[in-house]
Amino acid sequence: EVQLVESGGGLVQAGGSLRLSCAASGFTFDDYAIGWFRQAPGKEREGVSCISSSDGSTYYADSEKGRFTISSDNSKNTVYLQMNSLKPEDTAVYYCAAVSDPFVGYYCSGYGLRVPSLWDYWGQGTQVTVSS
């Protein structure tokens, strides 16, 4: 059974930092792309960043470049999202998602981040709240 479990969310002041974790199980981690998405109340789910577990290549949405860093520890089947310089507009439920990615760079791309329906497996989400 495929499972993705997010953790690390919480309440932080603007300018602060959080590190989210996504622990994966039930599939061959190295064959998948892992993405982070977020959804704020009343808004559509949007892609934040992704990583191809096979080669470590990454992609970021424009608004997160320079503030967020995605990384993976393949020995632990875990992907991290380090979020710095947080803003109130970063407040959302953050989800990790996974999709088999035999053609590295297809799903972990600007296209993949714009189309959440491409991703097969989803975690339950973790709330991030940034106060002003």
Characterise this structure.
This protein is mainly beta. 4% of the residues lie in helices and 48% in strands. It is built from one helix and eleven strands. The chain has one helix at residues 110-114; strands at residues 3-7, 10-13, 18-25, 32-39, 46-52, 58-60, 68-73, 78-83, 92-100, 121-122, 126-131. Strands 2, 4, 5, 6, 9, 10 and 11 form a seven-stranded mixed sheet that branches. Strand 5 and strand 6 form a beta hairpin. The model has no long low-confidence stretch (mean pLDDT 94).
Compact overview of the structure:
With 132 residues, the protein is mainly beta.
Please compute the radius of gyration using only Cα atoms.
14 Å
- Provide the succession of SSEs: EEEEEEEEEHEE
Query: How far is it from the N-terminal to the C-terminal residue, by CA?
Result: 40 Å
Fraction of residues in β-strands: over 45%
Work out the number of β strands. 11
Number of helices: 1
The class by helix and strand makeup works out as mainly beta
Largest sheet: 7 strands, mixed
Residue runs with pLDDT of under 50 for 5 or more positions: none
Helical proportion, percent range: under 10%
Judging from the principal axes of the Cα atoms, what is the shape? globular
Mean pLDDT over the residues? 94
